Amino acid sequence: MIVGFIGLGIMGRPMAKNLIGAGYKLVVYDKFAKFDDLVALGAEDASSNRDVALRSDLVITMLPNSPHVKEAILGTGGVIEGIKSGAIVVDMSSIAPEVSQEVAIALKAKGVSFLDAPVSGGEPKAIDGTLAIMAGGDKKTFDTVKPVLEKMGSSVTLVGDTGSGNVAKLANQIIVALNIAAVSEAFVLAVKAGVDPVKVFDAIKGGLAGSTVMNAKVPMILDGNFKPGFRIELHIKDLQNALDTAHSLGVPVPLTASVMEILQALKSGGMAANDHSAIVRYYEKLTKTEVRK
Ligand code: NAD
Prior knowledge:
single chain; alpha/beta; N-(1-d-carboxylethyl)-l-norvaline Dehydrogenase, domain 2; 2 domains; six-stranded parallel β-sheet; 14% strand
């Protein structure tokens, strides 16, 4: 099986490397980033998204948001112009569920199966090949590509029909954003009360408040390290998709809306490219304090 890989950014690049390491023959392309390192590892370079599709049985995309996925797959020079009937497209980007459904319908008309399969875990887990992968689509397609997905993730789950993977991802992103905000609020309070934040972390991480988010983000906050990771601008994108999807279903999401405004304030303050752990800086600015070692 020849695997095409489109989108070689923070996440896509290490994911593609893991597929090469697992012995898959890869054809790679990115519209803006260079990918000589992947070619040096044995991948073939393509000249466009269409070219990737012409040369692949399975095309994986890992792009920023819905418009990029629509352009790369359905646009001029896109995957849909080159893809063979019977091939499979798996979009691993985090995008709006309704766009996954739109792409699936367009590809189906060409005899091509589609899965949405966004991921959670960030760059470290992309490098380790231990991402959580949440897929939407039909079971036959899922079973065909599962061995490939298992080279990039340690948990690979079929959630439901097309779009369900991205619904699960929106739920994931709401929980992550609110968790970072809760941690930030609580640790700023502790520092203002004159308590050592390192000791607070040690005291509570094993209790009910402990979380994967806390374990990943508090050490970054304590070091004042806001290098992404997961950029604030990408989390704004995910929460916008969550707000749009929730409102179209008549679901109020008041806490998501509040954290969205914190992220917007950070973006206005020039921090869009910081890691989302920089949510703490919003609280630090309000209270003129810093949560550091
Ligand atoms: P990124 O911006 O680093 O990489 C995206 C890549 O897509 C870039 O290299 C860009 O040049 C390329 N690209 C854009 N438009 C293109 C097009 N039309 N054709 C071909 N290439 C194109 O983003 P990332 O951090 O790798 O994130 C990718 C996706 O994964 C996003 O949806 C993000 O929300 C999701 N995600 C990211 C993380 C993380 O921690 N970074 C974690 C989980 C999920």
